[in-house]
Design brief:
alpha+beta; binds 2-oxoadipic acid; binds magnesium ion
Length: about 260
């Protein structure tokens, strides 16, 4: 065990620099103990760096809402992170590979919030606070070496959030259950799942966001977008490759490096 003990703001600053310079850092958890609550404090401090540079909070993301993701990354609890306007990649557009460290892509469902959420809601109530849904790709890019982390590490790192692409908004369907979800790279299918893989019902992921948002003092307000979490493994995307995600009935979305 190393003797170095960093203050929470120092950790936030290291993570911010890692993202800005594309230079990964060692996991915090191998150097000092970080509780889950402290990790969320680091995340808030990290976002403060981004707000200070002019970025705006536009939504939240849920993570580890599927068995596939928990197994791939070796963790076992839900996490949530923050999305800013600077992370948005235009649908069918291009992103700079050089602004990432070791980016991975994953297929997701995204909710658009229609009115301020008053507090914790259940999976039936949340439907009344959403006016559109769409297929999305999340680009995750851990600031830790080898994309390896503990639960506290990844929370502190804003849950690997780095980019996201949104497909055309669709009216809220009768049900979000049992929708096949696919991820392709250069038109080749690399991962497939089902919306049921997201907590048996993607609305539960949004309900969990209202619970965790309430617990950690992060309001969910009208106009925000919420990513429900990936239904499949995330896949690395290389320079000049193109990623496409499809959720049956909701449509497709894509971008390239
Ligand atoms: C953490 C983010 C998890 C998801 O959809 O489950 C996540 C990671 O895997 O790096 O975004
Ligand atoms: Mg994700």
């Amino acid at each position: 065990m190393s003797a170095s003990v960093y203050r929470l703001e120092e950790i936030a600053s290291h993570l911010h620099q890692a993202a800005r310079t594309q230079k990964p850092i060692a996991q915090i958890s191998t150097q000092q103990e970080l509780t889950i609550d402290q990790a969320y404090e680091v995340q808030e401090l990290l976002l403060q760096h981004r707000y200070n540079e002019g970025e705006k909070l536009i939504g939240l993301k849920m993570g580890f809402t599927s068995e596939a993701k928990m197994q791939q990354m070796g963790v076992n609890d839900l996490i949530w992170g923050r999305l800013t306007d600077a992370m948005l990649i235009e649908n069918a557009g291009k992103a700079q590979r050089s602004s990432y460290i070791h980016p991975r892509v994953e297929p997701e469902i995204c909710f658009r919030i229609s009115k301020d959420i008053p507090g914790e809601l259940n999976e039936h109530e949340v439907i009344n606070y959403v006016d559109a849904v769409c297929t999305a790709i999340e680009v995750i890019d851990s600031r830790y070496e080898n994309f390896k982390f503990s639960l506290a590490d990844v929370i502190a790192d804003n849950c690997s959030s780095t980019g996201f692409v949104l497909g055309p908004w669709q009216p809220v369907p009768e049900s979000l259950n049992n929708l096949p979800m696919r991820l392709s790279i250069n038109q080749e299918l690399v991962a497939s799942g089902n919306s049921n893989d997201i907590m048996n019902n993607p609305w539960r992921s949004l309900a969990a966001a209202t619970r965790l948002g309430t617990q950690y003092g992060q309001p969910i307000t009208a106009g925000m977008i919420i990513l429900a979490g990936a239904a499949t493994n995330a896949e690395f995307l290389q320079q000049h490759q193109e990623a496409t995600a499809t959720v049956e009935t909701l449509g497709s979305v894509g971008f390239r490096f």
